[in-house]
Amino acid sequence: MHPPLPFPLIPLSLLSLLLTPLPTHATGAIPQTPLEQDQVLKTGNPLPLPGPWPWYADPEAHLFPHTGPATQPELQQNYWIYPTYSAAYEQQTFFDAFSSPDLITWTKHPTVLNITQIPWSTNRAAWAPSVARRPITANKQRGNNPSANTPRPAPGPTPEDESEYEYYMYFSTGDGTGIGVAKSTTNSPAGPFADVLGKPLVNGTVMGAEAIDAQVFVDYPSSQNSGGGGTGGDGDGDGDNGSDTTPRVWLYFGGWGHAVVVELDAESMTALKGAFVEITPPDYVEGPWVLKRRGVYYFMYSVGGWGDNSYGVSYVTGPSPTGPFSSTPTKILQGNDKIGTSTAHHSVLTIGEEYYIVYHRRYPNDTARDHRVVCIDRMEFDAQGNILPVNITLEGVDARPL
């Protein structure tokens, strides 16, 4: 047993200093240690989407340069997520949306589309929405038409040149009844959206593909784009269409193991143009997502079973929006028993040359069918243009204020 150490005498001036409480971050004080100064805010996984319902799936992520008419005092930018409300099919009668200025602080926009107000809907199984936009001003060049999945071409318009935009949502309902198109009644990505056609845009099964999981992809010609990723959207729009300045719009969809693409009319955004083309790659299940990087089209999709840990994401590549695509897929997203399982049905948020994969997953050991949450992680490419396997995390990604 050691003897007690003698109590040292402390000068009163030093004692007063030691007893003075340190300032806290809540008071706006400067961090006191190098460790604190080096800390970076992280999004965390799952993303802190406002409740009270925590379960969402099939997230489609975007960066829209502003949230409404150009006449508003400041043109705002926000990240947006449009997910499926993960619940029993009979409870899936609406879509919520979420916006954020930094990927950390999220605002809920409830019921941006209510399918019970759509006569042709079966009032159930509202799944996997996709949102795109186009300028209202008819004489605007279509090359200045930022979409949900493609950045504004360079050189882009200055804020004072921005026109108002029409926002369109493509959604599936009734477990394959059809894919409809709705338009924002406020010219804002916050909606609310209302059915445009009074009938499905895609009706029933096409070439074996259940009419679910729409994705709208806008392909810009190379002459209207910097070729390096650009800013102001979430996709890569460097195209290969020569001197043509008009982008082409493509609708991808399909469940039941079949994938189909069809061209959309870029002027109306509510009519099909051309024939359906089946582009089913090996192991395809559902959830198509196409992005373009440096002239290569990456066709990404979900594989495995959505209710278990075989669920993941693979991709193939091709020279055009309709292929032909490579025959050997590469799996880049899969679950981790300690972090999260059933990692799939994703979208990709592109900001310049940085890529973020937004997807849903389940908590480890949680087998409840509808317990799915939205997550985000970095997605990277190697020097040869291959997508590297995604490292799923609990931390998420760094905050990215706009």
UniProtKB/TrEMBL annotation:
A single GO molecular function term of this UniProt record: hydrolase activity, hydrolyzing O-glycosyl compounds
Transmembrane segments: none
InterPro entries assigned to the protein according to its UniProt record, in alphabetical order: Glyco_hydro_43, Glyco_hydro_beta-prop_sf, Glycosyl_Hydrlase_43_Enz
A Pfam family matched in the record: Glyco_hydro_43
GO aspect biological process, one term: carbohydrate metabolic process
Keywords from the UniProt entry: Carbohydrate metabolism, Glycosidase, Hydrolase, Signal
Stretches for region Disordered: 129-162, 220-244
Site residues by UniProt (Important for catalytic activity, responsible for pKa modulation of the active site Glu and correct orientation of both the proton donor and substrate): 238
Signal sequence bounds: 1-26
Polar residues composition-biased segments: 138-150
Gene3D superfamilies to which the protein is assigned, alphabetical: Glycosyl hydrolase domain, family 43 (2.115.10.20)
Coiled-coil parts of chain: none
Family: Belongs to the glycosyl hydrolase 43 family.
Record protein name field: Arabinanase/levansucrase/invertase
Species this chain originates from: Aspergillus fijiensis CBS 313.89
